[in-house]
């Protein structure tokens, strides 16, 4: 079976709370995503949380979801909530304003 089939890929929308804005959380998440080959985006939410879309291979997305629980050294993550979405391909990993 071809590993590029969609059943081997997943997407999750995650919302990360705590001290996650102004601490390079989005940029650090992008670095991790690029390293793992995960696509999607990271953007600040008006309430101080960060929303992240992760799409890619199951194991790579799982690794990045684990990373979200701590984030970069300057962050103080208080919680992460992720929901699965239907897989859809994305190009790269974008930091939205």
Summary keywords:
alpha+beta; 40% strand; 5 strands; 97 residues
Structural overview:
With 97 residues, the protein is α+β, with helices and mostly antiparallel strands. 24% of the residues lie in helices and 40% in strands. It contains two helices and five strands, in the order E-H-E-E-H-E-E. It has helices spanning 25-36, 58-68; strands at residues 9-19, 39-44, 50-57, 76-85, 93-96. The protein has a five-stranded mixed β-sheet with strand order 4-1-3-2-5, with helices on one face. A hairpin with a 5-residue loop joins strand 2 (39-44) and strand 3. Helix 1 (25-36) packs antiparallel against helix 2. Residues 1-5 have low confidence and may be disordered.
